[in-house]
Amino acid sequence: MGRQVCGLLLVWLFSGLSAAECQLPTSEQPPILLGMSTALSGPAQYLGESMRDGIQVYFNKVNCLGGVHGRSIELIVRDDGYQPDAALINVKKLITQDGVLAIIGNVGTPTAKVTAPYITQQKRVFYAPYTGAGILRNQPVDKFIFNFRASYGQEMQAIVKHIFKNGIKPGEIAFLLQDDAYGQAGFNAAEQVLTDYGFRHMNELPVTKYPRNTVEVDNAIMSLLDLSKSPKAIIIVGAYAASAKFINHSYNLFPRTLFYNLSFSGATALSNKLDVSSDRVFITQVVPFLFHSSVSQQAFKGDINLFLPNATANEISFEGYLSANLFIEALQRYDGEINSTGIRSALELLSTSQIDFGSPLTLSKTDHQASDKVWMMQYQYKKGFIKQVEGD
């Protein structure tokens, strides 16, 4: 069955199929209901909308091709505004009222911190959340939690490697953290990486914070200016608006400092708000640079134009699209009943995906994170994060 579906997808890709020529799902069984709680309002709205759109594009494509084993896919999305309490309420409604079989693509660490325990308690799969936090990557693996993207630990490994490559010592690093579970997750990841390199003085490094869902970074800048020596590298664990304001207001104040951002900020969202003539700003990414010409990138750009033309093609919607692709591939290969238990089994039986990603995507019973790959991108004035750092 899996080979037949892959063949059909290739035929579609090169046949110029229009939306009007879609094949309706033929099964008499009800749709496969999936749920998402994400930020569709507030300062993180861009992230939530992008992740939702990328997933929806691929599900629209699958439904156009006849669904999964003849069943359509339906995504039910609720807005949490990037607020943990609202996310938990949403997830409870999605499971108990809407009857979703799995939760997919939620945005954020603080929201995941409160929703993941409930989701797993209800024995539903929590798939591809937009976060690299360690709390979702326990060993041995949590039975119902599956990640698509690389971890914040792996992103921090790339950042620290680049910092050291530029001759900067651990004691010359400072942090700007969002004051919540996300900021703490990023700092914990950096601490682990630096400890692995033999650094034992994390308590001596300058750490500044700003409140979640705000851009109140002025106090953080003032704290760094009060230091006896300016940091040579600042690792930012924040959302795009606050991160951009911090960089815009401080890059001239620290004229030789390098600024590093985690992928959560969103390269496009961050670059759209940057106003700096500087090549000292970097971001890690967990999907390939969108404007290359791989099969998956070409398919994504074609599909978003066809199946959700008002959506924005960016690295976040691309991540949503790829994670949905992997999810559907697992279900298409699976021979059992597609229910909440069957979804977990399908993901664990996937093994190696056929997606053109640039590195293998795999899932198994002992490995619930599909990708380990991280890219480092450098900001180019007025062009965005378009330059991949060599050697990463």
CA distance, first residue to last residue: 37 Å
Instruction: Summarize the helix and strand pattern as letters.
Output: HEHEHEHEEHEHEHEHEHEHHHEEEE
Q: State the total count of DSSP E strands.
A: 14
Please give the share of residues in helix: 40-55%
| Radius of gyration, CA atoms, in whole angstroms | 21 Å
Walk me through what this model shows.
This protein is α/β, with parallel strands linked by helices and 392 residues long. The protein has helices at residues 2-15, 45-64, 84-96, 109-121, 152-165, 181-196, 218-225, 240-250, 267-273, 295-307, 315-333, 340-348; strands at 32-38, 73-79, 102-104, 125-127, 145-146, 173-178, 207-210, 233-237, 258-261, 281-285, 351-352, 362-363, 375-380, 384-388. α5 (152-165) crosses α6 and α8 (240-250) packs across α9 (267-273). The longest helix has 20 residues, at 45-64.
Concise account of the structure shown:
This protein has 392 residues and is α/β, with parallel strands linked by helices.
